[in-house]
Task: structure prediction
Amino acid sequence: MKKSVLSIICLAAISVGFSACTTVSLEDTVETEMKSEKLVINSIFNRNDFVLLDTVSGSSDFVTYDCVTKKITGDSFKYGVIAEPENLVVDVNLAVCTGKKAGVLRSNALEIAKQNANYELIMKADELGADTLIEPMYTIEKKAEYVGNSVRKESYKVTVKAKALKVKRG
Result:
């Protein structure tokens, strides 16, 4: 009797363990990833230390998560990471930032769409010869498909724009 109860408990634990492992893994499908540590202001600049090149922008396609199939579609597999500062002060003569917010990589449809848009933004800033980006601003468009009261699909399209700066070499 004890062995059969113990066997049932072990089988239940194994079943729960395997069902918890049904997460979406995108780590194996990464084609291109571009981080932008060099493109984030991380020190004090005086007004004469940099030149404003232009405002650049990037957009993602709609990235959709299907709750039934647990699949993500619309991902470009090109990810950009902008390390956003904890505190940012920009006034007429000075730009200062301190600390960095923790970044989340490819965790859900919204984050994937954001990183796809960041990649486009970083590529455009790089084409201009920018050394840094300042004040990225995001707009998010969301669509949802419901079955009854439950969400079946969630889709996000992200657009980001920022100022591209070139640091003067003295």
